[in-house]
Design brief:
heterodimer; A: 401 residues; mainly alpha; Cytochrome-c3 Hydrogenase, chain B; three-stranded antiparallel β-sheet; B: 346 residues; two-stranded antiparallel sheet; 11 helices; 4 strands; globular
Chain lengths: 401, 346
């Protein structure tokens, strides 16, 4: 098949073009994306992304795990926003189980999700700017990312592979001092976004490199299945947090930044404004954080507290049963989508009534967004390809799964 | 007059000293760059080798010498080996005609602080530095790699284009000094108006020329925002993708030596060279000009590094458009206005 061998599918055209192989080891293909370019001088005639270098088999692995054991796998799909994937998966399973999640757990989920979004956007902004040659922004972004990773470590003990959400609630109570730490960060963060913008937004060279570059129309973006900031950069006003609220997002006030131009700069400005909106949601979550339990009242699904497990016979039995043979989930299928930093992240979970999922399929936002690349780049220069890849913010772990 | 033997001996001594100083300066420019960019970027830069990482250049040098020298089997060997040498040799040669201070008398011998005082000094510097592009272009071609080829192409186009503006921006200064000799140009900038404003060319209406020169010099030395030939996020490493160990180090040293050369030229042509306040005992008065000159070069290098920590990179077509459509007309306009003023004055 043509798409199995991209080189064969790109027959050399006239004599004046040459094939340039960019990646999978290349400084700016964000991991292991391989892009095959047919170039005429510096102009790109055709472009063909080649994926699959980070295939992990996670989707298949899920079928051999108990439902609760899938959560750590979801971290590893998109290593820049692990909590978003945790959330999407647990929401899907909770939908199948018909669980009621206590408000504190829901608010914590929103809080952690927005921190994850900031974390992911910071990595994107840093690497995108570095692709275009602005080195300093990268380290500024990682300075703030470090604080967020510290928060992740506080709640879950892990900096990246957090697995903090559980089916039925959260893994642990947030520790003492956590909310103060987050609040202190949230107060400081807007000034830091100003700092990034000072270096980039008004910079004429940044403007020359991004404005009008890799333009994509709203029709094309929709037709190719784009979502998230990549779609909103083309002027389509859609955000699942607002339009299909989940996990209590309907309780939060936030704007959905859109931009009409559809170029690299539009996607950049959308994401930078999202940073500000996200920190606003974090503030609201901190202010309105309800009291109460962090786990649903469902002893057959949710692990009992350690103390109860050690003192009560019944709790010990539930604990033993959940750990050794999992919990059965009613037969059925469910699709749950959340707004990940990259777009619509969807989990399609099929249950056959046993303790292990029959099928878990992930709808990857990046995979769809990557399809825009050839529309964006054909006829442009090599440097624009780099800018375009940066602007659609791909994570290969999510694409290859 | 000096005897031939003394002349050769003095010349050799001066060459050795100049080379040692220049190579040390190159090594410590790298250190300075890493340190300054580090602090701009909220980190420390080198700290491990020696106090403040001051021995880092030595460690790097040792590493470069002992690294495995990988050579792809597909390269065209003669040119592949010659290219880094061409780059480095031309980068180092241009220092020969750059004066660093006035005449001095040591042990009864009266000699200028300059390897050789040529009356066409500036032309020689420009000629030699423009030969450096051969090293880059040949490296890109002989590596037989697509990334190197693109880098080499970009470098040749860019260096040739910006050389035009670079050269034209200097002609205003030449008109004012009426000489090609770097020493004469510096001497013409001595003294001060009303004992306050020094008679540097930059204060004599050559300020536009100075900025044109500065911009073109960034492009000439392949520095951000014009570092397209080696734009690592696009072309991996551009023309030196296939080079490793000492061959790579030669390109690296050539780049920094070129930076120092253009900084020297800028100081000499626009900022009064080694002129500055002289005070204190005789030995201090002898050293101060060297210090003022070094200070200016340091200032330039600092600007280079500062810009690198701040700006993104141009795109290839934008770079060309900027060079030909903005910089070149400005340089020509500056040249004509300077010529007109000088003609009217005389």
């Amino acid at each position: 098949m043509a798409h199995m061998n991209p080189i064969a599918s790109l027959e050399p055209g006239q004599d004046r073009t040459m094939i340039l192989n960019m990646g999978p080891q290349h400084p700016s293909t964000h991991g292991v994306l391989r892009v095959i370019l047919e170039i005429d001088g510096e102009t790109v005639v055709r472009i063909m992304p080649d994926i699959g270098y980070l295939h992990t088999g996670i989707e298949k692995t899920c079928e051999a795990k108990f439902y609760q054991q899938v959560v750590p796998l979801t971290d590893r799909i998109d290593y820049l926003c692990p909590l978003t994937n945790n959330l999407c998966y647990v929401l899907a399973v909770e939908k199948l189980l018909g669980l009621e999640i206590p408000p504190k757990a829901q608010w914590m989920r929103v809080l952690m999700n927005e921190l994850t979004r900031i974390n992911s956007h910071l990595v994107w902004l840093g690497t995108h700017a570095m692709d275009i040659g602005a080195l300093t922004v990268f380290l500024y972004c990682f300075r703030e990312r470090e604080d967020i990773l510290r928060m992740f470590e506080m709640v879950s003990g892990q900096r990246m592979m957090t697995s903090y959400f559980r089916i039925g609630g959260l893994a642990l109570e947030p520790p003492l001092g956590f909310f103060d730490y987050v609040r202190e960060f949230a107060n400081r963060f807007p000034a830091r976004v100003d700092e990034y913008e000072n270096l980039l937004t008004g910079n004429p060279i940044w403007g020359m490199r991004t404005k009008g570059v890799a333009r994509i129309t709203a029709e094309d973006a929709i037709a190719l299945g784009a979502s998230g900031p990549t779609l909103r950069g083309s002027g389509v006003d859609i955000d699942l947090r607002r339009d299909m609220p989940y996990s209590g997002y309907e309780n939060f006030k936030f704007k959905v930044p859109i931009s009409q131009d559809g170029d690299v700069f539009a996607r950049y400005i959308c994401r930078v404004q999202e940073l500000r909106e996200s920190i606003g949601i974090v503030q609201q979550a901190l202010d309105g954080m309800p009291e109460g339990p962090i786990k649903a009242d469902a002893p057959k699904v949710v692990l009992p507290d350690r103390e109860k497990m050690k003192t009560q016979m019944e709790a010990l039995i539930y604990h033993f049963k959940i750990i050794t043979e999992g919990f059965a989930v009613p037969a059925g299928e469910v699709y749950q989508a959340v707004e990940s930093p990259r777009g619509e992240m969807g989990y399609y979970v099929v249950s056959d009534g046993t303790a292990k999922p029959y099928r878990v399929h992930m709808r990857s936002a990046c995979l769809a967004n990557l399809q825009l690349l050839s529309k964006m780049c054909e006829g442009r220069l090599i440097a624009d390809v780099v800018a375009a890849i940066g602007s659609i913010d791909i994570v290969l772990g999510e694409i290859d799964r | 007059m000096l005897s031939v033997g003394t002349f050769v001996l003095i010349s050799i001594i001066k060459i050795v000293i100049a080379l040692i100083v220049l190579l040390t300066a190159v090594a410590y420019t790298v250190w300075l760059e890493r340190k300054v960019v580090g602090h701009i970027q909220n980190r420390w830069g080198p700290t491990r080798v020696g106090p403040f990482g001051l021995l880092q250049p030595l460690a790097d040098g040792v590493k470069f010498i002992f690294k495995e020298d990988l050579t792809s089997p597909h390269v065209y060997r003669p040119l592949y080996i010659a290219a880094p040498m061409i780059s480095l040799i031309f980068a180092l040669t241009s220092i020969a005609v750059i004066p660093v201070g006035n005449w001095v008398t040591v042990g009864g011998i009266h000699t200028p602080l300059q390897i050789t005082d040529v009356n066409m000094g500036l032309l020689i510097v420009l000629g030699i530095t423009s030969m450096g592009v051969y090293g880059v272009a040949l490296a890109g071609w002989s590596s037989n790699s697509k990334y190197s080829l693109l880098g080499g192409l970009r470098a040749s186009a860019q260096m040739v284009s910006y050389e035009v503006s670079l050269g034209l921006s200097l002609i205003g200064v030449l008109i004012m000094a009426g000489s090609f000799s770097l020493r004469d140009i510096v001497d013409a900038q001595g003294g001060a108006y009303w004992h306050v404003i020094p008679r540097w060319n930059i204060f004599q209406g050559q300020i536009f020329a100075f900025f044109i020169y500065l911009t073109a010099a960034f492009a000439e030395t392949n520095r951000i925002p014009f570092d397209l030939p080696e734009a690592e996020t696009e072309l991996v490493a551009g023309y030196h993708t296939e080079y490793s160990a000492m061959k790579f180090a030669m390109f690296f040293m050539a780049e920094y030596a070129n930076m120092i050369t253009v900084a020297c030229l800028a100081s000499l042509l626009f900022l009064g060279g080694w002129h500055g306040p002289l005070f204190g005992p005789a030995w201090l008065q002898a050293i101060l000009p060297l210090f003022w000159f070094a200070l200016r070069i340091f200032g330039f290098l600092f600007v280079y590094i500062w810009v690198r920590g701040t700006l993104p990179r141009f795109r290839y077509d934008q770079l060309m458009a900027f060079g030909w459509k903005v910089l070149l007309p400005l340089a020509i306009a500056n040249l004509m206005i300077t010529g007109l003023i000088v003609a009217l004055k005389s």
